[in-house]
């Protein structure tokens, strides 16, 4: 709106004896304001709202205002959304008689203007005095669930009443047509959008959004558990991809002591097992004997130790066949560490947070089977070349909170993901990080800050011949491999054994099969990556694996730029390099005399070696704080050479490329060669021993 028009509008208000009545007269005699967008009526109304703020004496009260309020209410149902708030404010409708407002909204409702009645109720905060079921039912029939959410958003009591009503509609015996009958002539009613499945989804959405206890909705919870029960029977008895122990864990946690679900469990057992098998499982799942059919109850009496012997024999045969058909961990069992204390975890971080380290990262959580909320990570797996660490995340977080240091674990995880000098390998990292954020809110921005990551999910679209159909032909009767298992099969020759994938990862202690599965899931990433780095062309990848894997997986220019800062050193004995992009142009060659460094106190051997080659070196003393290196670097224009955790702190305190992380596991000579190569320092015979030793 032009400044000239605004000034003209304000001059007009100043000349009016009663600006509020004047605005109403203008709006009533014109239809321009009824359209969407910024009409002239809208401009005049918003200008009056601003003008009133500058002239506090203008607003009226008493009988005159009540008459104006009555006229405005008549207009509000025809108002575009952007005019509602200004008119309510100008005519002080929040101060109007509440019964009068409720009566007006009721009149709108009876005329079939359900949406307008709800919007006006929300604007005037009338919901506590209305019947939530009556107001929301026609909106749900018209597929306006978002408006229903908004209607109850600020009123916990109404949220509970609405959820209880919706859950009642989901009772198996309830006839959903009873709801529809009073609204036969309803416009925009779509029967396909109003059924138990849609209602169930809505209930779960509302439970999550408003953080309401799901016990309030027993019907939808039972139905969801029943679907889980049927799915578990399909996985175990039809698809046959779930181990007995794993299946039993989930059946018990799903059914619990719920009589209705126990009855369905017995029916399903009889469909898939004989009476003896049904009796054994009924006993295992603690189904009360009085709920069992006579034939199953009789078998329950006959059960004896022989059943267990048969199962153990079957299990032994199964283990032998697994070794033949599936990927096996190449490291000994004693190199898999299950960590539940901070002392153990700190030792793990010391090994993981080393510059040049390559880490396979995976996470496990209890399957939600469609229940409310995002899954919470129960196990974090970190695989190095010679060992795998399994971190009991719930236990560690609980322990840290009890000690008043709940930021301890998130701090380490953020350091790992944000360090460009450590290569993190994952498969579908975005989903893992989303669950990690749901587990610990301090980690919600990890994905935005991560550097040096390679998501092998990106390889699925690039590796030649990678398709489930190809896998199915090879595997014969078994289900076709997919996802990471298919990639492992294609690159390493055998698929992953996924029978433990849907385990209850929150149950402690973990079974041995779960521990081996979790370790394999993380470790196989290292082996895939090593194979792809050695021979990318044979898998249809470009010879520049950096471009194939890192370039395409990162959409964040900032992260990419950071990766280019420094060529990360590779760990001692590591056969494959991390996908580090070399700087596009190496730095100009310099002599050792022109190269000035300050060495952190854990790199005194490297410092002495570089001084032998003629480099200008300052060494920190053993008692010096690491931060002194940054102070010296800034004052004297030196490059910092450091390693491990101090690198995270120091690199942010100096300019780009002025802090370099050295691999501590290498000897001084190897470290020196790495530094000289990175900074393009050219050593001549005349430089050697040119400085005082």
From TrEMBL:
Q: What is the lineage of its organism?
A: Eukaryota, Metazoa, Chordata, Craniata, Vertebrata
Q: Any idea what this protein is called?
A: MUT7 Exonuclease
Q: Which organism is it from?
A: Molothrus ater
Entry keyword annotation includes Nuclease: yes
* Compositional bias of kind Basic residues: 553-563
Annotated region (Disordered) at 548-591
Locations of Polar residues compositional bias?
565-575
Keyword field contains Iron: no
Which gene is annotated as encoding this protein in its UniProt record? Exd3
* InterPro entries documented for this protein: 3'-5'_exonuclease_dom, Exonuclease_MUT-7-like, Mut-7_DEDDy_dom, Mut7-C_RNAse_dom, RNaseH-like_sf, RNaseH_sf
């Amino acid at each position: 709106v032009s400044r000239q028009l605004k000034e003209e509008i304000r001059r007009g208000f100043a000349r009016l004896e009663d600006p509020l009545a004047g605005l109403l007269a203008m709006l009533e005699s014109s239809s321009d304001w009824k359209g969407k967008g910024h009409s002239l009526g809208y401009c005049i109304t918003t200008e009056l709202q601003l003008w009133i703020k500058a002239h506090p004496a203008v607003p009226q009260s008493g009988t005159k205002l009540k008459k104006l309020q009555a006229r405005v209410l008549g207009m509000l149902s025809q108002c575009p959304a952007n005019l509602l708030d200004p008119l309510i404010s100008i005519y002080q409708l929040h101060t109007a008689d509440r019964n009068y407002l409720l009566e007006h909204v009721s009149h709108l409702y009876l005329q079939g203007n359900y949406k307008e009645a709800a919007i006006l109720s929300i604007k005037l905060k009338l919901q506590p005095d209305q019947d939530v079921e009556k107001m929301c039912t026609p909106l749900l029939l018209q597929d306006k669930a978002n408006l229903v959410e908004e209607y109850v958003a600020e009123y916990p009591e109404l949220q509970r009443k609405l959820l209880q009503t919706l859950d009642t509609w989901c009772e198996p015996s309830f006839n959903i047509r009873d709801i529809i009958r009073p609204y036969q002539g309803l416009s925009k009613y779509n029967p396909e959008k109003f059924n138990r499945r849609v209602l169930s989804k809505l209930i779960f959405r509302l439970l999550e959004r408003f953080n309401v206890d799901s016990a309030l909705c027993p019907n939808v919870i039972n139905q969801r558990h029943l679907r889980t029960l049927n799915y578990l029977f399909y996985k175990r008895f039809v698809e046959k991809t779930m181990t007995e122990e794993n299946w039993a864990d989930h059946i018990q946690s799903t059914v619990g002591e719920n009589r209705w679900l126990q009855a369905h469990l017995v029916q399903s057992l009889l469909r898939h097992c004989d009476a003896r098998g049904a009796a054994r499982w009924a006993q295992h799942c603690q189904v009360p004997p009085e709920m069992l059919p006579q034939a199953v109850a009789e078998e329950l009496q006959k059960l004896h130790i022989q059943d267990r012997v048969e199962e153990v024999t079957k299990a032994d045969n199964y283990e032998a066949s697994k070794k033949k058909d599936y990927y096996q961990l190449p490291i000994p069992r004693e190199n898999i560490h299950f960590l539940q204390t901070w002392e153990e975890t700190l030792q793990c971080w010391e090994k993981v947070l080393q510059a040049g380290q390559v880490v396979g990262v995976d996470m496990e959580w209890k399957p939600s089977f469609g229940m409310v909320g995002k899954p919470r990570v129960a196990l974090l797996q970190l695989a190095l070349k010679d060992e795998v660490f399994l971190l009991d995340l719930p236990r560690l977080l609980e322990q840290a909170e009890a000690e008043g240091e709940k930021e301890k674990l998130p701090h380490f995880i953020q350091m790992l993901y944000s360090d460009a000098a450590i290569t993190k390998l994952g498969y579908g990292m975005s989903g893992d990080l989303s669950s990690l954020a749901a587990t610990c809110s301090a980690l919600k921005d990890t994905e935005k800050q991560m550097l040096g990551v390679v998501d092998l999910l990106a390889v699925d679209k690039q590796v030649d011949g990678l398709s489930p159909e190809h896998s199915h032909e090879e595997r014969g009767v078994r289900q076709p491999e997919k996802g990471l298992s298919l990639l492992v099969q294609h690159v390493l020759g055998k698929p992953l054994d996924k029978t433990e994938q849907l385990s209850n990862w929150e149950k402690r202690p973990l079974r041995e099969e779960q521990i081996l599965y979790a370790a394999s899931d993380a470790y196989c990433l290292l082996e895939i990556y090593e194979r792809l780095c050695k021979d990318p062309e044979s898998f249809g990848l470009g010879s520049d694996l950096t471009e194939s894997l890192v370039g395409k997986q990162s959409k964040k220019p900032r992260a990419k730029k950071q990766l280019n800062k420094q060529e990360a050193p590779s760990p001692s004995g590591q056969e494959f390099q991390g996908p580090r992009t070399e700087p596009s142009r190496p730095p100009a060659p310099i002599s050792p005399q022109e190269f000035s460094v300050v060495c952190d106190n854990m790199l005194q051997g490297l410092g002495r070696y570089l001084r032998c080659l003629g480099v200008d070196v300052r060494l920190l003393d053993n008692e010096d704080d690491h931060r002194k290196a940054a102070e010296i670097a800034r004052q004297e224009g030196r490059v910092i050479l450091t390693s491990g955790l101090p690198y995270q702190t120091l690199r942010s305190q100096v300019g780009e490329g002025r802090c370099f992380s050295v691999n501590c596991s290498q000897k001084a000579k190897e470290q020196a060669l790495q530094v000289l190569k990175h900074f393009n320092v050219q050593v001549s015979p005349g430089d050697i021993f040119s400085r005082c030793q």
